[in-house]
Batch of 4 targets.
Target 1
Amino acid sequence: MELYPAVDILGGKAVRLTQGDYARKTEYAADPLDAGRRWVEAGARWLHVVDLDGARTGEPVNLDALARIAGLGTAVQFGGGLRSEAAVEAALENGATRVVIGTAAFLNPQLLKSLLMAYGDRVAVGLDVRSGRVTVHGWQERTKLSPASAISRLVDHGVKTIIYTKVDWDGMMRGADVVTAQSLVKEARGARIIYSGGIGSLDDLRALASLDLDGVIVGKALYEERFTIEAAQAAL
């Protein structure tokens, strides 16, 4: 199971939000490259980079930061504002190994189909869930979709990698929702599931490691030094 240290970019800085709330942010690095370098030098094999400005505005804003982070030589999973083919192409051209489609995957299924045909496994879908329903537009709007129905729809479209975020717990370090993660794996019919939200301890990672997940995204717990990259990888 892979560890994905998070680098969330807002206003040109590396931050973490609490429960997806832009008004509740903590700054961890004035330059996101420094955050990325910190995790790479600690042994990270992947980075999960989110353009929070792009997620809110609808088009990527921090592609220059993506390019600089990708220059560190580690695989980068990148999302935030990727709602057109041009935006996805720009992200890939700026060094993304894998792109994460969120809002567009649910509001523009034809675009998702086109991207999957063009880029295959380099396209993942972000399944951001708040109060039991999928959210879009940078976690600001809830849809009527349940996680189970959303996963079924995505798998039917041919999506191979799904990134589940429990927004209610994100940045809270209150623990992993192992029960939900387990149910999502069953719904995925073989598609890869990456879990995010609430990780606060190595015990959380060990609990998730017992499931058939592809990876876990960790942000605040790493920044707050609850554990190291090396210890997290060992736990997984």
Target 2
Amino acid sequence: MSLSILENVSALSAENSLSMTQNSLSSVLNQLSTGQRINSGADDAAGLSIANGLSASITALNQSTQNANDGVGLLQTADGALSQVTTLLNRAVTLATEAANGTVTSAQQTSMDTEFSSIKNEISRVGTNTTFNGTSVFTGSATSIFLSDASSQSTIATTVGTLSASTLSLGSDSLTSASNAATALTAINTAINTVASSRGTLGATINRLNSAVNVMNTQVTNLSSAENGIMGANIASDVADMSKYQILDQTGMSALAQANQTQQSILKLLQ
């Protein structure tokens, strides 16, 4: 091998190899410290784009799950209120049945009618004052539950009807006489059926929303797994690479030192 003082090719080659080794070591250490295989677009531009899309879908699905759960909360609030109304109506059945009996006195019927009026007032109060998240529940307006996975969107619409003694057709009924009580009993039984039907509709929608939540949770799990497969670092492989690059870094430094020393031999020729 000829000796030259113009260029130390061996040192330049060793320096270049050492630089590549240190870059690789830095990349591996970055992956180990973050737990991510992709930390910048330079690592895997296509993979980063796919992972970002998956992340957006996961975020949208998580919020949609919360939206659906909020819808369930709204409907469960309404169902709970209607359950109390059913209890009140069952008491009204007892009063009307008793008041329709020919053995009770007029004064007793008046007393029963007073309690019946209180029941109707309480039903109306429940309809007016039942709220969810600061908003009245029994408005009769449609509520749309918005669901999205970032790339598509849908809604589940539900309507909680109005609730009062009047909407249950009990406003003009009384228990002041046997005939009035018999008429009221028919109206009360109709009201009970109406409330039961409303609760059935609410229950069906609650089940639908819960089903949607289950589907979205499964989607989040699968998408998270896919995202992790793209973004997640292979720790075992990275640890092995780290050891390899650390050794190469040390041997590279030694090789560079040896390459720099070769030109010292030229000085011996001048002695």
Target 3
Amino acid sequence: MLLLPVSHAVAASNTPGVLQASWFWQSAYEQANPPVAPPTTPPTEPSGVPDGDLAVAYTGAQDSAGNKTPAKMTAIAFDTAGLTAGTSIQSFTFALTLDTQPTATNFAQQDAKIVACLPTRGWPATLPKGGDYTDEPTYDCGTAVEPKVNGNVYTFSIPTIAQTWVDDQNLGVVVVPDPKNTTAPFQLVFSGPKTIKASVAYTPGTPLPTEPPPPPPTDNGGGVTNPQPATGGSVPGPVTLPGGTTSAPPASAPVLASPTPTVSATPVAAIRPASSAPSAGFWLAAAILGVFMLLVSLVLGDPASPVAVGGRSKLDNVLRERGSDAFTVRRD
């Protein structure tokens, strides 16, 4: 039972289709006389490649490091939509078939040394015609793969290259003359993308486990949110009911908050706004204070000091008269 998920994962396979295919061409003249800028006119020599076909060719050119450079190269990208992140490629193969029609120029097939390599940049689609060599992708043949040849079928096994499509970006694969083992000129013309057969076996990526989100809090109707029961707490014991019956409460019963007590509404008498006028008590206290202050001034004042009655105000005269009468009564 434990081996079933693994076996199912390893057995996952499909036949990916061709997403995009191109071939790029540098004529023999251009190889001997590389232009500074891309040529403005197409090469005058015939390509020997029917429209829609793909080609790989070598005419004897090499770079400054002594590696053989292609006159024609093919680039293919496969549909990897089903290979999600984390997928482990177990095998990936694709097969190219030679076009044996008279319009396809194949020569020195027995001497042809070709390999599959990893492109290091993107490239445009050019079919049905071939593209200019200035648009061809650069590539890395550090993990070059030689094909198995069975008659006119060239089969490449490239799981390492295919793994980069999952781990990084899908730049496809290029088929070029072997940069180290090619010695004689050759040309191979393969039929178009519709005849390319590919297959892949892989272990699907395992998604990381995710914890389920906590349940949303509930409202008991009174605006109080019930807290979630804490894990690891003690379980309440059985409850003895009247009559000797024992009942055990549920172990994970949530504790509900007490409902909000209902307060009966009692009619309240209407409250009238208080008057802004001083009360009678205020005026009585003010009068007593005034009389007291007057008495104090008469007792402490100098009776010998003459005061000009004409300089007093009416209020002062009235207060003095009332104070004098009160003082006379008190003295008597």
Target 4
Amino acid sequence: MCTVRIVLGWVGAVVVLAGAIIAGVAIAGATAFSASAFARDYLTTLADGRVNEVLELPGVDAEGLDRRLLDPLAVGTFSWEIVGDVESAGVHRVTIAVTAAGAEGRATLHLERIGTRFGLFPEWGFARSPLTELRVTTTGDERLTVGQLPLEVTDGGPATFAALTPGVYRFAHHSAFLTADEVTVTALGGEASVDLDIVPSAAFVDAAQEALDAALTACADQHVLFPTGCPFGYAIENRVASEPEWTIAQVPSARLLPHEHVGSWALTGADGVAHLRVEVQSLFDGSVSTLERDVPFSAAYRVGFDGSTLVLAPAVDPAD
């Protein structure tokens, strides 16, 4: 009788232990090995900047997209919180509240079970790649920075990049002659777009004005009726009796516009007035008189650079 009691006791203990193990497995499967836990690990890894580890997760696919933004230097900081996990047809839709740069948004990760770990726990992967298709266009220059990452967009784009979801990307441009207001984009899945308007800086405008003034001064120093490579000239019917003298009576203001080729610029709309003074002899009676005329002109130049020096080349049309 005693032996029977001992056996029953051991059987009861085994049953209790088995139940505890099964319960533990169930609890672990619903917590530490759940879809939300997988999402949490993904977000932690992403927030730590371990992008290479993120890209190795099952279901992450950037095929057909420009991968250059998949770089730790490109991604900005953000905070996140998992606020929902809904399962339908085997796919878990894990909703994340994202806060970055004072803005808030929500992203959804689509997860599915892809196998079993340790023969007991579910293994997860992405049912839909956690990437945002980010379409980038620039005007004024091909060069920009994304976070701390230097980048070039050929011909100003558009170019479609793979961006991590969620992810914060700050687009900017700062150089000696150009600038752009920073544009911040939070990648929340699907598609997003960025238009970065790169414009002349005050230093560029000042340098263009100095170059324009120098070019017009060089034109005025030519003692001919039609200075070579210059936007003004004057034809007369009588005989020239002295060297023509030019002065710039109204100095035009430089206005810079993007050339049709992204990254190059044109100076246009420079409307000014040149003043001509020359002695002329009448072909009718041989008398000599002084001719003075104000000659309006409009200047157009291509803008180039010789090192850090701005150089102007005459152009009929800024788009030429």
